[in-house]
């Protein structure tokens, strides 16, 4: 094996120490990000004095019931969730309108994630949904929460602006099971 004349290091392992340091920094960043992700997300709104509407223990997902992409997202969550306690609320239902009014989100056209006294919108609601799923989806959500908010927002906008084109020609009839029906509230 040839060795570096200055350092005496072998070329095949010359950067091994740097790799280990970078790996430790990456692990520390993910650990810190996992701890801080819920309050550092862009689009988070913390409410004071929330009415009874927002006091539900399980999280709520307010989604556009007329959007095929949103319906597919709900189907995906139902198929992959670990906890099975998320409540689904169509945005234009009576409860959906009341929740949006309570949280001052009438003009917001994105999906809303409501948990406790906090509302997450746009890319933050997607991150919260992935964290809710559990398993490696949860880890993916935690990693995504470390991305700069302009990048997350740009990705969200790209998908949101083309969601109808993405689903063009596809039928997505959401038929919940009897157990799931109780979780669709209006």
Layout of strands and helices, then pairs:
Elements: H1 16-40, E1 44-46, E2 60-63, H2 68-80, E3 87-90, H3 94-102, E4 112-115, E5 118-121, H4 122-133, H5 135-144, H6 149-166, H7 178-181, E6 184-185
Parallel strand pairs: 2-3, 3-6
Antiparallel strand pairs: 1-5, 2-4, 4-5
How would you describe this structure to a colleague?
The chain has 186 residues and is α/β, with parallel strands linked by helices. The chain has one domain. It has seven helices and six strands, in the order αββαβαββααααβ. The chain has a six-stranded mixed beta sheet with strand order 1-5-4-2-3-6, with helices on one face. A hairpin with a 2-residue loop joins β4 and β5. α4 runs antiparallel to α5. The radius of gyration is 21 Å and the shape is globular. About 24% of the residues have low confidence.
* Helix and strand sequence: HEEHEHEEHHHHE
Which spans of ≥5 residues are poorly predicted at pLDDT below 50? 12-56
Apparent shape: globular
Structural class assignment: alpha/beta
Percent of residues in β-strands: 5-15%
Total strand count, please? 6
By DSSP (H or I, 4+ residues per run), the number of helices equals: 7
The gyration radius over C-alpha positions equals 21 Å
Total separate domains = 1
Query: For the largest beta sheet, what order do the strands appear in spatially?
Result: 1-5-4-2-3-6
Give a short account of the largest sheet: 6 strands, mixed
Helix content: 40-55%
Average pLDDT score: 76
Could you tell me how far the N terminus lies from the C terminus, measured between alpha carbons in angstroms?
A: 71 Å
